[in-house]
Each structure stands twice: as C-alpha cells, then as structure tokens.
Amino acid sequence: MTLDQWLAYDGSAGDPTRAWLNRIGFQDVEIENYLAGNSINWYDRIMQTGFRNDINTSISGRNGGLNYYWSIGRTSNEGIVDGEKFEALRSRLNLDAKITDWLTVGMNTQFAKRNEGFIAADRGQIERSSPWGSEFDDEGNIRLSPQDDNGAGAVNAFLGQKFNDRIDLDHTFNSRVYAKVKLPLGFSYELGYTNRLEFQEYYNHALAASPQNVVGSAVRQVTKINEWQLDNILRWDKTIDKHSFNLMFLVYGEKYQSYFTRSRANTFEPSDALGYSALELGTVQTVDSEDETSTGDAVMTRLNYNYDSRYLLTLTMRRDGYSAFGETNKRAYFPSIAGAWTISNESFFNSEFVNFLKLRLSYGENGNRDIGRFTALSRLNANKYLNVDAGGNVITVPTFDNGTQENTELRWERTKATNLGLDFSLANGIVEGSIEAYQNITNDLIVTRQLPNIIGFNNVTTNLGEIENKGLEFTLATENINRENFQWNTNFNFSLNRNKIRKLYGDLDENGEELDDITNQRFIGEATDVIWGQEAIGIWQTNEAAEAAEYGVFPGDWKIRDVDNSGDFTVEDNVFQGHRSPRFSWAMSNRFTMLKNFDFSFEVYSNWGQKRIFNEAKNRNGFIDRTNSIQTPYWTPDNPINDYARLFSSDGSSNFAIWRDASFIRLSNITVAYRFPKSILEKLSLQSLRLYANARNVAVYAPHWDFYDPEPTNIDGRNSNGTNDSSLPTPRFFTFGIDLSL
Amino acid sequence: MRNIIYNYRKAFLSFTLIVAITLTGCEEEFLDADPQSFFTPTNALDTPEGLNSLLSQAMRNLRAEYYGDGAPMITENIFSEVSVEGTTDKSGPAQDLNLLILPDANLNSANFNRIGWFWEEFYKGIKYANTVIGRLDDATFESDAQKNDILGRALFHRAYRYYRLTQQFGDIPLILEEITSARLDFVSTARETILRKMQEDLNIAVPLVNEVANNGDINRDAVLHLLTKVNLALGDFDAAIASSSQIIEGSTHTLTTDRFGIDAGNASKDVTWDLHRVENKSIPGNTEGILVVIDRLGYEDNGDYAGGTSIQRQAVPLWWRFINTPDGQNGMSDAPGIDIDQVTAIGRGIGRNRGTHYSTKEVWKNANNDQRHKLGNWYDMEDLVYNAPSLQSSGNSYYGKNLELYLPNGTPLCSDTIRNWYGFPHYKFFVPDPLNVKPAGGHGDWYVYRVAETYLLRAEAYFWKGNLGLAAEDINVVRRRAEADEITAADVDIDYILDERARELYYEENRKTELTRIAYIFAKTGKTAYNGKTYSLANFSTDNFWYDRIMEVTDFYNKGVKTIHGDEYTMSPYHVLWPIPASAINANTQGVINQNEGYPGAQNNIPPLTTIPE
C-alpha cells in the first residue's frame, strides 16, 4: 500500500502523521502537542511523597490522693496524592481522686478536632488524562479537560482543588465521670456516666469560575451527635477458705441522638463570591434535616466462683434491650456459662517442663443489634413532585414512597458460642501459647432480604434461619534466644474460620426440602461469602472461532462455562467459585534486642484463599480509545494468552465477573530503635530517650494478583472486605520518631 | 483540704439524685424511639393528603421513563422501527438482540437496555396505586368528590402500568393489593384477562376523576385517553371511538393551532415549534397537553428530575467527532463559546437513540411544507457546518461550510455513519440546559398524552372499523396543523397510520407498546394486513406484525449491519414480547411466573390464569 492509498482510505490529505492521529481519534489539542513534542506525565504530576508528623506530649503524676494525666497531641498527615491531607488535635485529661478510704471519684475527658477540609487532586485522572493533553490554555487558564474530552471522563485533575472552598471539621468531646464506693461486707458500688458530644461541619463552595461549572453552588451541613451511657455496678467479693466468690450486678442505659441539617444554594446573584457564607444569595435554595434517636438498656448478673485457683466457674445472665427492634421483640435474654480448670495447680501435677496448663470450656449466648435505627419500620420516603396550576404557576407537591416493608417481628440476632481452649506455658516461659476451637451457631441472623421485584418493595430487614461458624485459633509466643546482649522473641498466630448456612426462611419445595434463596445468593449448606455465578474459564482462541460464534462472541473474548450445554446462559450455568473472605490467616512478629539498647523488629501477615473481582481482565475499562488507561496484558491473535481478553472484549449474552485469587503475604512493618543508656540520660537530665525508624507496607507477595494492592486500602486505614475500589494504592510509610520523658 | 473534700461530696450527692430520678422515670417507654424525620404508613396514610402523596409519587415514577441518561423510553424506540441503539463503541447496548435480550442478561442499565426498568418501576407504580386503593377506607375525606378523585386516579395509575406491561411482556402476574409480606407464590395471568379488568376499572374511573386538574397530574381526559388504548387493545373499536370522541368533542382539550407562548412573536417559527417548547407545555395557552409530566430548572431536590431530560445527549447524533472536511482534516468541535458554537445550539449528542432511515428520511418523502420537517425545526447533518477552531486557525477554506458525507469518488468522510450521521427533530430535542457547560438537554416538561395522539388513536379505531373516510379526516386534523398535505380515504391503512404517528409522535409515544398493541389486534382479529399477511394469537411469538413491520421498513436488523465495535444488529419475531427478568422468576420459588416463548425457561410455563380469583 502506498501512502496515497493509505491517505485516500478516508479522504485524508496533507501531513500523514496528522492524518494518522486524527484517524485513531486524537483530539486537535493532542495532535498539536504530539507534533510539538510536548507531553505530561500525569502520574508524576498527581502523585507526591506525603509528609506526616505526629507530636504527642503528656504529663502525669500523683498528689496525695489525686492522680492526674494530661496529654496533648497534634497530627498533620499528607497523603500520596497532591493536596491530600488531614490534621488532628487531641487532648486528654484524666483525674482520679481518692477522697476517703471508701470513696473515689474521677473523670476522663477527651477533646479531639479533625480537619479534613483539604481537597486532593483527582487521582483517577492518571488513568484518564491524555499525556498529550494540555493542563492550561494559551492564556494560562486551567482547561476543563486536558484532551477536550470530559465526556469520556478526562477532566483536569486539579479543578476540584482549585475551584472549591471547603471547611470539613469534626469536633468531639468525650467525658466520663465515675464514683466508686466501698461498702461493708465485701460489697462495692460503681456509678459511671459517659457523655459524647460530636459536631461535624461540612461547608463547601464550588465556584462558578471553574470551567466545569456554569453556576456556583454551596452547601452548609452540620450534624450534632449527643450520646450518653449510664452504668451502675454493684459487686460483692468474698473469700471463704479456698472458695472465692465474685458477684456482679449491672444496670445500664444509653441514649443516642443525632441532629442533621443541610442547607444548599446555587445560582447566586449578583455573584457567588460570598459562597457558603451567604446562602441567601442563591436563587435556588434547598434545606433538609434528619434527626435520629435510639435507646438501649441492659441488666446483667454475673457470678465468678473460684476454688483454690484450680476450678473456675462463671455464670452470667443478661437482658439487653434496643429500640430498633420490632415492637414485641425489643428485649432478649442471653445466658452464659464458663468453666476453667488450671491443671498445673493440681497437687498431682508435677512437671518441670510444663509450668502452666489451663483448660477452658464455655457456652454462651450473645446478641447482635447491628441494624439501622429504624429498619423495622416501613419508611415513607418523602420527596417532592411538581404540578402547574391553572395560572401556569409551578407548585411543589409532596410525595410518599413506601419503599420498604415493615417487620414488627424483627428481633435480636442470637449467637450460641461454644468454646474450648487450652492455655500453656512451657520451659519457664520460653514457649507460651493457647489453642482455641469454637463453634458459633447464629440464629435469627439479621439480613436484608431482597424481595421478588413484582411486589414493589426492594427488600425487608429480617431474621434469617441458622448459620454455623466454626474455627480454630492458635497463638504461640517464644523466647528463641535470651542472652545478655541478644534477645529474640517471636509471636505467631494462626486462625481459620468456616461458616455454613444451615437454615434459611423455612420455605420448602414440593419435596419438603428447604429452598435456597437465589436472589440473595444464600444456599443451604454453603458459606455466606460463597461466590456463585457464571464462570470465566479462559479466552476463546483463534482456532475456536466457530465455537465462539455459537455464543455470539469472537476469539479474544472470555469463554464462559456452559454447564447445561444449552448454548445460552441462565441461572442453570451458575457455579460455585470459591469464597470472598480468607480461608485462613496468619501473622508473625519477631523482635530482636541487641546490646541492650538496640531493638529491631518486623511483622509479617497473610490472608490466604480469598477471591476478588478483577474485571480489568475484560480489557474495556472506560473509553480505552479516548483516554489514558492502565495497561494490562491483552489478547491478540499473535499473543494468544488465556487470562486477559482482547481490547474492547464482548461479554456476549453472559453476565459474569472475573474472580482472581487475592491471597497475599505482606511484610507489614520493620522497626529499628535505639534506647539511650542511663549514663547518657543522666547527663541530659532525662528519664528516657528513644529514637526509632519504622517502615510500613514494605513488601507484598501475591502470586495470583497482578494489579494494585491485593488488599485495598485508603489513607484512613485498612479495609479488607473486598468491596472497596480495587485500584486504590496502599502507601508505603517511613517513620522517624523520638520518644522522650523528662 | 477538708473544705475541698466536702465540696466533692456535695457535687457527688446531687449527681446521684438526678440519675436516680432519670432511671425510674423512663423505664416503661424508654425503648420506644419513634422516628422523628419520616412518616410511616400507620401514621400518615390515613388522610387524603397522605394518599395524594402516594399518587404524586406514582406521577414521579411515571415521569422517570422520559428523563435522564439512557431514559427508559429509548428502549421502547429501539424495539420498533423508529430508532436503533447507536452507541457503537462497545458491546452491551441492545443491538445484537438475539444475543443480548435474555432473561438473565443485564436488563436495566443505560449501557444495555431498560427492559428491567419497566418491569420493576411499573410494578412499583402498581404498588402505589394498590396501597391507595386498599387504604382508602382508613381515611376521612372532605367530600365524596375528593374520595372519588383519589380512587379514580389510583385506578388510572394501576391501569397505565398494566396496559404498558401487557404490551411489553404479555402474560404477567396480576397484583391488585398491597403486599405486606414476603410472598413467593405468584402466577401469571393472561394478558386479555388483565386488560379486561383494567377496562372495567377505567370505565369506573372516568366519572370519578376531576375534569380539570393541575398540569402534571391526572384529569378525566387522561383516563379517557388511556381507556381508548385499552379499548383498542381489546379490539373494542366502537368503545375506542366513543372514549376518544369524548375527549375530542369535549372542551377541555383541543388541538393547538394558533401561535402561542414564549416564541409567539418570532415570525420565523411556527405553531409546531411553539407546541414543543418546554416553556410552553404547561402554560394556560396550551390546550393540547392531556397528560404532561413536570420538571423545571430551579427545583433541585425539590421536585425536579435530577439532571433533567438529557434528551440532546441521548438522541442527537455524535456530530462532534470523526467527521473530516473534504480535504481530510478534522472538521468538528464540541467546545462551547467558540466562534461557531454548535454545541450550545443543538447539544452534545452521543447518538444513543439513533433515528432509523425510516423515521428520519422515509416518512418525510413528499414532506413539502410540513412544519415538522422544515429547516430550523428539523436538522439533517448537511445543515451543520465544519466548526473546528483548528480549521479556523489554519485558514482552511471549509471552515463554516456545510458538512458533506462523501468525496466525489464516494469515499465517506465520516467513519461511523450509524452513530455520527443522521437527522433529528430539533424542535422536540431543544431543551435549554443552562447548568451544563456542554448542553445535554436540561429540565423541562414532557408530553405523555396530547390531543394529536387522541386523533390518531380515533383514526386507527375508524380504520379497524373500516370507516376510512373518518380515519382520513382525523389524520388530516393533525396534518393540517403542521401545514402538511392532506390525504384521502384511499391513503389510509395501518402503514400510513404508523407513518403519521412516527412523524407526529417521534420520541413521545411508547412506540414498542403501540406497535405490539397493533400486532395483537391483527393476531386477534385475523384481519389481513397491508403486507398481505394474516396473523394469529396461536403463534404470536413466531409470526407477528410487529416483527414483519420492523423488517419491512428498517435498514438495520438482520441486514448484516455491524457497528464499528463489531456487533451486528439482529432481531427475532419472539422479541415482540420482552423476556420476563429471571430475577422475578427465580425469587418466586413457590409459584410459576411464565417466561415468554423464545427465551430460555419458557419450557417450565403453566397455563396462565384467565379469571381473577376473588
């Protein structure tokens, strides 16, 4: 083919490079930058090395019967994205006054202020903004879209930062006052009152000056949360010979109240220069508010009986109440019993090697009330609709959407936990540990049940049959080396859990077998986190084109298991494909102390066997022909891989997700520290001085996961439920610190 | 020191006293935390206001079909002759219907189709109506008239949904009461049985509903208009003529024939333009709108549809890319505020609702003076100009010239003529969108029923009765207003009625619903269609007028047309009825909801109910 033939294909003329770029969809600005040799590395432009600093100071002491502690701390943390930051100020005051032999009163008060009013650059633009785009126009104004294609999601990463004015503050005051009274005959009484007051404020002004906005808009949003808890505890301690009794009686009450107000305005006149400070200048104004209250109470009795430090028995009965449950089921009783036998205290037990051995067995029932405050009720979601009257005037009319069914029967979720444990200490404490096995049967699990969509209700919160959890936990602490100038300690723990749905709602099929709940993906005999769906088993290759065509797809598309060989994909083709949560987890930490003053430690942990969605392997995230993209491997006839599809792959008639094993082992922490010796401290008039350096998230080994972190995180902390944004990178933290006591 | 201790004690003593009082005071009701910021059915649905609020919610629900990104009504268009899915750069949009339209597929997404939206949201509308009907006796009304009006409007809302669902899905579960438990034992009821019940309900509703209501709500003529459709669907043509005549001969709603409204003084415009200005749809001078849904700028979270119509984004072609000048340079730009600012004039379309050759060319042959197709009201691509600033700055001679599709040697200058190149009725799509930098079609009212359709429905009823003269006259009423040439009785057949509906009601009517209704009439009556075929209910899903009509007039389905992404437009006769979403069938474990023939799962069907259990 000649150049002229190539150009004539679509009537192009002139500069062939320009024609080529136009043909593959470059915008004019991209073509100009390409030809001029300009480009932007958006990763470098948007990502940064963030500095975090944290300073804490505290004083504590005792004066007569008065103990006091006061601390103050300030945190200022930058994130890894330009502009990402948060600041916090915290202070705590604890007072404990022993007034007489029989009376102690005290107070713990905490104040904290968090400032999150910082706006980060849009990190997602690394994956969308074109390297041949322009950040500014010829006059130096910031452009709406680097490549003039905001429709494809390519928006200037810095617009939010530059054209928003924000206050985002959270103030909390927590205070607990208490009194402890010693009474005659072994009785004692404690009364505590805790109050939490929180103010959340969010003010934002999105400026009309932004190329993204036509009008300015602003919001003021304030939430006040007030919560109190009151507990009365009466205790009786008595020891008669080798029998010791400890009886406790608790009466508890709590109340939560929150008040939310939000005012918004847009289209300001004469201008939006005053932003959220003058919402009344907005021609469109909206207000909304939401208040919530919940209450809870508890009464509990507990008896501890100990015979000769050999036999222990604990009996507990509690009654819990919570306002969110159905009218008739707000309160429930939860008994428990626990026994322990310290074998090593028996007279017949004579072992030099085993220093401590204790066998524990317990059975207890406990409740879960983790539901929204009003989920038992049918909520009439109120909104507005518009009418126009005979005079042509617009009027708003109220609307009610009865969106959920009520459940007046909603009751406490109840778990019956049976626990068998063994604690041991061997060879003078060189090896210590415990082994624990448990079985938890949960009845009346609180779940959101999707309903058949024809009844017009999406879901109802209800109690679901029976779920069994069983598991094994194992912890071991060893003192590997203990010399004068070198100590090495290891802690190791391992856990595994298996769960299984044993009963659902009690709906039976014609054979009397209980029915699975396909809609909610709950299956009798399977785990609650089981993955069930159409299964991607590889990529159609070139020599399978005819077979692929029967499913309406092409070589390079995902091949889906056609379980019933029907040629189409229905619920009959769904298969179980593993689990969302780890099949087992372990963690290990090692600590070395050298030459008395050097500490070195590292921690490793692992979650193994969980799967996560990895639809990136479909190779069609966003507009890959119009925006930048994260390059993943992709199938071509010359690169016939089996784990990533062709670009712009087709799902055919299937409805599937790609699941990938996200097992990993992470070297999560390395710390080096130096403690100054006494001799130097005395010269400096210091009590203690410690310097340390620490690195977090040092390395990850994930053999089957080739993308961002296998365990998604964000700057505020780790979240491993698997539902988070899979493309959030985990920062690596390096810390240098000084601990100093005067 | 002693003194201090004393003070401590005093503080402590008064503190315990307060606590003790608090505890004993609330023991009984302590756990009753009533909702403060929302109502519940028990405390708010026992008043006329509460019931009206449910009916206004039913209106919001009805409105949503016509608004937003991937508006559900587009799915009605692409399952007919007037449009196809035009987003050609990916798999998923409903183009290869044989492949994609399945019970287990994604049936509710802007990027796929909205079949599932109709299923779910229409059943929600039925729930609102059933809740009102069932709780009517709990409330105390100011008057019988008030109670009647509420009942009548509730009956309308239920019938509106069942009329639509039975044309979309055929036999479906009939629910006539509020369901307050997790019921799993539904069965399907025959389409005709449901329609009979709705006809009965609407006949009850006609005298109950107020003659005049606010725009945005249900009035008596809206009930009559729906009743006309149900009468036609049942083959009760005399009843259809009677119910439509009651509107036409009444004085509440008349065809608007004189200039009015916001642009009335602009001599370059005409009454067709005036009729479709969103500013004009609910003003006192507009007598044509029978049922209008309301959405206005300035009512953000206060009654509006968030984001507005988005109609230009949906239905205007993607004209701003992949169109070259005849000398081979990029021709187009969607930047606002440039010297030739076309994006502000016609909006930034993405060509999702791609008008077919049939609706954009074929029906406009011999348009002559037809206002509905004249320049300014209608745009063909050749009416747009090359406007890229790069042409301006390089001094290209094509800057500002009208677009051309081909070079003299036949080389196309547009690489995707499906998505980027087709004509469109600007007079309907122009909805000002001052809140968007690149307009997408903003807030504005929308016609659901207007008198022009009433005339065309009566014309259809006259046609079925064989009264072609009266049919032609009703069609001519609509054509005269648009200054189109009049027709004679000899011109009237279903082909012509469908063409006239496409001209007058494009992007307004529920095209798939109406075309299926007509296909059912052919099958039920056995009348010979203009294509020479007769049809029967017995094999409706394998041989029907709906499929034959689309195959006859459109140039996409089953013609080997492929998108640039490689997906082929296909369709089969069984698509006349949409698949029942598998989720409904799977969740209904103690009964059988029938699947439509042609889709997997139909082998489990049982005969539908043909009576309504008491």
Helical content class of chain B: 40-55%
Shape of chain B: globular
What is the CATH architecture assignment of the domain at 42-71 and 114-209 and 580-614 in chain B? Alpha Horseshoe
Shape of chain A: globular
The helix-and-strand class of chain A reads mainly beta
CATH topology of the domain at 42-71 and 114-209 and 580-614 in chain B: Serine Threonine Protein Phosphatase 5, Tetratricopeptide repeat
Major beta sheet summary of chain A: 21 strands, antiparallel
Measured distance between first and last alpha carbons of chain A? 83 Å
Main beta sheet strand tally, sense and closure of chain B: 2 strands, antiparallel
Q: Helical segment tally of chain A?
A: 7
As a whole number of angstroms, the C-alpha radius of gyration of chain A is 32 Å
- Say what oligomer this is: heterodimer
Q: Order of strands in the sheet with the most strands of chain B?
A: 1-5
Classify the secondary structure makeup of chain B into a structural class.
mainly alpha
**Succession of helices and strands of chain B:** HHHHEHHHEEHHHHEHHEHEHEHEHHHHHH
**What top-tier CATH class of the domain at 42-71 and 114-209 and 580-614 in chain B fits best?**
Mainly Alpha
The number of helices of chain B is: 22
DSSP, total strands of chain B: 8
